[in-house]
TrEMBL record:
It comes from Actinomadura rubteroloni. Belongs to the N-acetylmuramoyl-L-alanine amidase 2 family. Residues 1-28 form the signal peptide. Residues 92-108 have a biased composition (Polar residues). Residues 199-347 form the Peptidoglycan recognition protein family domain. This is N-acetylmuramoyl-L-alanine amidase.
Length: 692
């Protein structure tokens, strides 16, 4: 990737009285004609810390030039600061002072071969726009490092501005075709084409790197064997809108405060999942960074903005780390869930975790703490590394997204009559394997997106495996599938009978009953005639109404595989009025619209009776019910069949209150006899209902 070159730009150090050192970039001429344009890449102001006694050095509260990031540095890069560092800052906008905040005192990584101007440093704390600072550095029983100072980083705007207008204007900066000072293409390592799409990222020009400050051309490793994940330890107050400013501030802290050649990380990620290019030299090349002392060779460093010692990283940040890791490792075909061996290059006695020359096995996505004595990347981010590895592997060798046609799902299992089609979205695999119960039954080519499979009767697992170059495989989640070609069975076919309820001239209350079973899974029972209704597989009856006359009542039972069985019954329903009854004893006719046909019979004469002779298989007695009505004795075909008390708490007409059914249709006689119930001898009748 081309590295941005600011024509005519150079770094200038200004030394002023009082131990204040300020760094800025010299004015750079614009590429196009705009009056007196210059780049605002930010600056670092440094103030020496004075002796405050009791093993403490610091800086009393002081007004400063604007800054947004603060850290403490010292002369010797490998010297340790054993103690505490606390700062408080004044907000530029409100003028209020923050509480005291701790700055991580762990010695920051340094380049593998630090130059004479490289300094040691704490972590850098993001404060947001500030214009005042107070610092306290307290040693724990040891001499504090020499040359302590506080570095105040103003990230600037990172944009080109026009002095005459005093307002920012975008200007395209010139870029060299090759990174300045980089080796010729033939001298660089050759890498395989990326197996993973490159994720979107913000290039250095996008976050406003001042390339004139970079002290040396990039160096390249032979390969990238592992990714080390970090947190920047800058605090968790960086808004996503300020991420570019934070990256620019870290760049200035690494280069100007600590004296490094360039920003140490190869990539940085914010909590919204934005990926930023870090160290210059080409994102797709094995650029040697400064992020994991002793193991910077053949590795790349990815840092998440923030501190994750006791804060959970965002899902977007984790996804971004997985995507950039998958892409970077994919350039050389490295498995994100694998391991690799690296040799420690930290000279003994310089703070490395492992002795010089020690061969160490790492996960190909590891945490900073795995290779260096540090808490980085924080406990909560470190705990997410297994999930990041899995996600990165699935990006590198995607798990196929599959679908299953020709089968219906019920619960967690699919059901089919036998023939199904397994479909998938192409993932770039060389080929696929369709597996039934673990055995390969088809091997479609890498261009295929479906396969037809015929399953034998019974329960199976059906799965797809993607086979990638080099033999890498990923398995899609298996389907549990049952093949079944057997229809459901109606153990008891459709049967219709009268039921107790209210009757009217167009609706005779009936119950349709059945019992259906299946050898695998009954899905539903549906009524298709004389009206449509769907029932659950456990339902065995339907309370309906029949229009007087003939009708066919039909049912269809369907299993989960789609096999279907039917059962039906044809019946004729009829209403027979009370006027057609043979009567003996005293009966009177009453006329009211509440009765069927507008008329009914009533009697209070004990022993009075009415009878009907009919042909059918089911009969029901229709009566009036009320508080003051009494009982009747019911006889069928000359034999007492029961007693019906017509009393009820509320008055109700046309009540089918008593029923009897037979297994076949035949001629029968039903007779009711007034019981003469004490205090309420009256009974009212409205005829009978029959089914045949």
């Amino acid at each position: 990737m081309p590295r941005l070159v600011l024509a005519g730009a150079s770094a200038v150090a200004l030394v002023a009285a009082g131990g204040i050192v300020a760094f800025r970039a010299a004015d750079a001429p614009p590429v196009r004609a705009v009056p007196a344009a210059h780049v605002d890449p930010g600056r670092v102001a440094a103030r020496s810390l004075r002796d405050l006694g009791a093993h403490t050095r610091g800086l009393p509260a002081a007004t400063t030039a604007p800054f947004s990031l603060v850290g403490v540095t010292w002369d010797r890069p490998r010297a340790e600061l054993r103690g505490t560092v606390r700062v408080r800052t004044r907000a530029q906008k409100t003028g209020t002072w923050s509480p005291w905040r701790s700055v991580t005192t762990e010695t920051q990584d340094v380049p593998d071969k630090p130059g004479k101007n490289v300094r040691g440093g704490t972590g850098a704390l993001w404060t947001g726009p500030s214009d005042g600072v107070e610092v306290r550095v307290t040693g724990h029983g040891r001499t504090l490092p020499a040359g302590l100072r506080v570095d105040l980083v103003d990230p600037g705007t990172g944009r080109t501005t026009t002095r005459a207008a005093g307002r920012p204007v975008p200007v395209r900066l010139a870029a060299a075709v090759e990174p300045a000072g980089s080796p010729a293409p033939s001298d660089s390592p050759t890498v395989k084409a990326a197996a993973v799409p490159q994720p979107a990222l913000v290039a250095r020009v996008g976050w406003g790197a001042d390339e004139s400050l970079v002290k040396a051309p990039p160096t390249y490793d032979a390969s990238v064997k592992a990714v080390f994940v970090h947190h920047t330890d800058t605090g968790n107050d960086v808004a996503c809108a300020d991420s570019a400013s934070a990256v620019r501030a870290i760049f200035l802290y690494h280069v100007q405060s600590e004296g490094w050649d360039d920003i140490g990380y190869n990539f940085l990620v914010d909590k919204c999942g934005t990926i930023f290019e870090g160290r210059a030299g080409g994102t797709d090349r094995p650029v040697h960074g400064a992020h994991t002392y002793g193991f910077n060779t053949d590795t790349t460093g990815v840092a998440v903005l923030g501190n994750y010692t006791s804060v959970q990283p965002s899902a977007a940040a984790l996804d971004a780390v997985a995507r950039i890791s998958a892409w970077k490792l994919g350039l050389t075909g490295v498995d994100p869930t694998g391991t690799t061996k690296l040799t420690s290059l930290a000279p003994d006695g310089t703070g490395g975790k492992y002795p010089y020359g020690t061969e160490v096995t790492f996960n190909t996505i590891s945490g900073h703490r795995d290779g260096f004595a540090t808490e980085c990347p924080g406990t909560d981010l470190y705990a997410k590394l297994p999930a990041i590895r899995t996600a990165a592997r699935n990006i590198t060798w995607p798990v196929p997204a599959t679908s299953l046609a020709g089968a219906a799902k019920s619960g967690t299992r699919y059901y089919t009559k036998g023939a199904v089609t397994l479909g998938w979205k192409a993932t770039g695999a060389e080929s696929y394997e369709v597996r039934v119960d673990g055995k390969v039954v088809a091997q479609p080519a890498g261009t295929a997106t479906s396969a037809a499979v015929t399953l034998a009767a019974g329960a199976h697992t059906l799965a797809l495996r993607a086979v990638y170059a080099g033999g890498k495989v990923t398995d899609a989640p298996a389907y549990a599938v049952t093949a079944d070609a057997t229809k459901p069975v109606f153990g008891s076919g459709a049967a219709l009978a009268l039921r107790r309820s209210t009757v009217n001239t167009t609706a005779v209350p009936v119950t349709l009953g059945w019992k259906a079973t299946d050898n695998t899974l009954l899905a539903a029972v549906r009524a298709t005639s004389p009206s449509a209704k769907t029932f659950s597989p456990t339902t065995t009856s339907w309370s309906a109404t029949a229009k007087p006359g003939s009708a066919t009542w039909a049912l269809t039972a369907t299993d989960a595989a789609g096999n279907a069985a039917t059962s039906s019954v044809a019946r004729t329903s009829a209403l027979v009025s009370e006027q057609s009854a043979y009567r003996k004893g005293t009966w009177r006719t009453t006329t009211t619209s509440s009765y069927l046909g507008g008329r009914g019979l009533y009697s209070s004469s004990r022993g009075a009776y009415a009878s009907w002779t009919f042909t059918g298989r089911s009969v029901g007695l229709i009566v009036k019910r009320a508080k003051n009505t009494g009982a009747v004795t019911v006889y069928v075909d000359g034999k007492k069949a029961g007693t019906l008390d017509t009393r009820a708490s509320t008055t109700a007409y046309r009540q089918l209150a008593w029923t009897k059914a037979w297994s076949s249709s035949a001629k029968h006689t039903i007779k009711i006899v007034v019981a003469g119930t004490s205090g309420r001898p009256v009974v009212g009748i409205d005829g009978i209902a029959t089914l045949r």
